[in-house]
């Protein structure tokens, strides 16, 4: 059985950091590997921090040769959804900002000669796992025992134990959202604010967030993703750093399409009136073995 990078699933970490990198002009892809190799033994935590390494489609294709084409996904072209592809995404999460600062600085220093930081976002768990809107985020996330199957590619498929990830920074208009009365806020999400109870079908609008992202496949089963988003920001700019993993990137594309009015019914998610994505990329997160092989570790 292929083993995923453990940080994809590790729980209980309140400090998060997302770094995205672009190769410096003229650098060959393999020099990134030399820089990454030895960064850590990916199977153990580094001083209290989990590290998850994801590769952008272009870099993964360049590194993986013909076999990699089956495990790359290009970000979709959907109006209102910016596509900001980068070469590498490194997600660290741990028990405190001090440890994560050291880890992030170490990663940047190691990659400095070959890649530039394209984005660097510090996130945090807000109260009892709420989004900054005040709504609990994660209620319907797959339970731990189901998350593995939802998030990772099955053995026998290309890229076993790997995952596709969506990393997307959203900026909230909290003033606008909080100016609404609580009932209207609940209709935007589709759940109650206090305890995340789903609104009944006859009161939940078609434009509610959960009405847009709950999608059934041709067998009538709900398509699932495994979300690991956290809030981030300053008093001036803040929102959600949305992160999700899936065995199939098409699930993200379908959900984004239905949120932004690109599906057959043309309905959009009212949440997008109060929050907008300002970045968005798909990454391939190889299994531990494949990461080790790619980095040339035994
Ligand atoms: C500003 C950005 C977003 C915010 C604040 C947000 C917030 C929420 C909240 C509060 C819930 C209900 C509680 C829960 O089940 O977790 C939820 C559910 C969900 N969201 Fe989002 N979300 C955002 C973006 C997205 C995006 C971009 C996707 C997919 C690409 C997505 C997919 C889902 C899914 C699949 C569920 C579970 C639906 C269910 O099974 O009931 N969300 N989200």
Fourth CATH level, the homologous superfamily: Apc35880, domain 1
The CATH class, by name, is Alpha Beta
Query: Unreliable segments (pLDDT under 50, ≥5 consecutive)?
Result: none
**Global Rg:** 19 Å
- How many helical stretches? 9
Shape, please?
A: globular
Tell me the structural class. Answer: alpha+beta
Q: How many strand elements?
A: 10
SSE layout and pairing:
Elements: E1 15-23, H1 29-36, E2 49-55, H2 57-64, E3 88-94, H3 97-111, E4 115-124, H4 144-151, E5 163-172, H5 174-178, H6 182-189, H7 209-213, E6 226-227, E7 230-233, E8 238-246, H8 250-259, E9 275-277, E10 281-285, H9 288-294
Antiparallel strand pairs: 1-3, 1-4, 2-3, 5-8, 5-9, 5-10, 6-8, 7-8
Q: Could you characterize what this model shows?
A:
The protein is α+β, with helices and mostly antiparallel strands. The chain has one domain: Apc35880, domain 1 (Alpha-Beta Plaits). Helices cover 25% and strands 22% of the residues. It has nine helices and ten strands. The strands form two sheets. Strands 5, 6, 7, 8, 9 and 10 form a six-stranded antiparallel sheet that branches. A hairpin with a 4-residue loop joins strand 7 and strand 8. The structure holds protoporphyrin IX containing FE. Protoporphyrin IX containing FE binds next to helix 7, strand 8 and helix 8.
């Amino acid at each position: 059985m292929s083993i995923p990078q453990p940080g994809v699933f590790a729980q209980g970490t309140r400090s998060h950091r997302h770094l995205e990198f672009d190769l410096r002009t003229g650098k060959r892809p393999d020099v990134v590997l030399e820089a990454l190799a030895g960064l850590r033994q990916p199977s153990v935590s580094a001083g209290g921090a989990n590290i998850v390494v994801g590769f952008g489609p272009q870099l993964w294709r360049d590194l993986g040769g013909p076999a990699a084409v089956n495990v790359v996904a290009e970000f979709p072209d959907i109006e209102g959804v910016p596509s900001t592809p980068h070469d590498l995404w490194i997600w660290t999460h741990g028990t405190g900002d001090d440890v994560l600062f050291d880890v992030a600085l170490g990663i940047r220093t190691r990659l400095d000669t070959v890649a530039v930081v394209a984005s660097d976002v510090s996130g945090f768990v807000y109260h009892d796992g709420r989004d900054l809107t005040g709504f609990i985020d994660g209620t319907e996330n797959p339970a731990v025992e189901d998350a593995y199957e939802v998030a990772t590619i099955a053995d026998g498929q290309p890229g076993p134990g790997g995952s596709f990830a969506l990393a997307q920074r959203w900026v909230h208009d909290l003033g606008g959202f909080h100016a609404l009365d609580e009932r209207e806020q609940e209709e935007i999400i589709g759940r109650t604010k206090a305890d995340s109870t789903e609104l009944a079908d006859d009161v939940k609008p078609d434009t509610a967030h959960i009405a847009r992202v709950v999608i059934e496949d041709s067998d009538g089963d709900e398509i699932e993703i495994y979300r690991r988003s956290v809030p981030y920001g300053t008093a001036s700019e803040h929102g959600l750093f949305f992160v999700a993993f899936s065995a199939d990137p098409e699930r993200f594309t379908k959900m984004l399409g239905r949120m932004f009015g690109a599906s057959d019914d043309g309905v959009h998610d009212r949440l997008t009136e109060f929050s907008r994505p300002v970045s968005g990329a798909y990454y391939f997160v190889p299994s531990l073995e494949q990461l080790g092989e790619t980095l040339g570790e035994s």
